Amino acid sequence: MIKTLNQEKIGQPRKGFVSFKLEFTDDKLSKENIEDIDKKLLEYKSHVTHFKEGSAYEYEIDPEDKIINVIIHYPLKKWPVEEQRDIKLINDFADDFQEFYESKVDH
Which 3 state secondary structure label does DSSP give 14? Predict the structure, then answer.
């Protein structure tokens, strides 16, 4: 089961995008299954652009600490101005990633 550890806005590392980091943990993540999980996470690249048009995504997997770091790049011109909408958008991405992960990764 995957759990969200942290969510934070990290600014604009890509021109024209605002980015945020989502940190998840999966207690069944290991060196033995990292290749399979890596393949599944590659599928999210096409999914995320359909989920929120124009979005980009990158990730890192740390099997020793059982951490998956996800960085979402969202078009700046579509970024909500209000803080409440800002938080909701980040939560929507976190929920979407978690649902995707749980549907694709079979432990």
Answer: coil
- Distance, in Å, from the CA atom of 43 to the CA atom of 37, rounded to the nearest integer, reads 10
Mean pLDDT by groups of 10 residues along the chain of 107 residues:
88 84 93 90 85 88 94 87 81 93 82
How far is the C-alpha of 94 from the C-alpha of 18, rounded, in Å?
A: 16
CA 84, 89, 92 angle in degrees (round to 5)?
A: 125
Rounded distance, CA 26 to CA 65, Å? Answer: 9
Nearest to residue 55, comparing CAs of 82, 3, 8, 16?
16
